Amino acid sequence: MANPMYGQNKADDNIDSVSSNLLDYLSGYQGNLLLNGITIDETASAAVVAGGASAAEIIATRLAPGCVNYNTAVATGAGGMYLPKANKGTHLAVEIVGDWDEATAQTIFARGAADAGSSTVFAKQVVGVPNGATGTSIETLGTAAVPTSIKLIWTPAAANTNQWGPGTVIHFYAPAEDVWLVSVYPISEGSGATGALTTSAS
Length: 202
Fold this sequence. Notes:
Strand order of the largest sheet: 1-2-4-10-11-6
Distance between the termini: 48 Å
Number of strands: 12
Number of helices: 3
Mean pLDDT: 90
Low-confidence stretches: 1-15
Structural class: alpha/beta
Order of helices and strands: HEHHEEEEEEEEEEE
């Protein structure tokens, strides 16, 4: 019999899909996410920050909703990936498979994908994991009522001491239309004392 807590059998589920997705997001649970999300490689990741990304290049790095996605880039150069439309209740994740150990910015775009809409933002929130030695957590921009961050940028150091090492998983959840919450579950390399997270409203 399916466990209604996790919505494995939607016909018998006593918790609606939005609540179930929120519980999954808050706990980092991936069991209700499809495992066949997209895989972003170094070439696709680099193309979207090279200037004037084409629609095809953005599609190649658009994370699939309701799925675990994978990023195999190794951050030899600047790279990026795009979030899909933030329909209320949407949950997705991306696992950092590649070893981001070069000093190049890796950007997560809240908007830019064809279906994302021009008003999508990251909610007012603290993102990242506090570490006194680094800037691995930040507060996003704007106010709770009017958040303004549209990019999250992780810049590792050229060292095997970064907090976001291979196996790091980033979860996204839309508590409202066109708004994303972000939760990072890092697997650190070495001391995990390097890497900086920043945000931008433009």
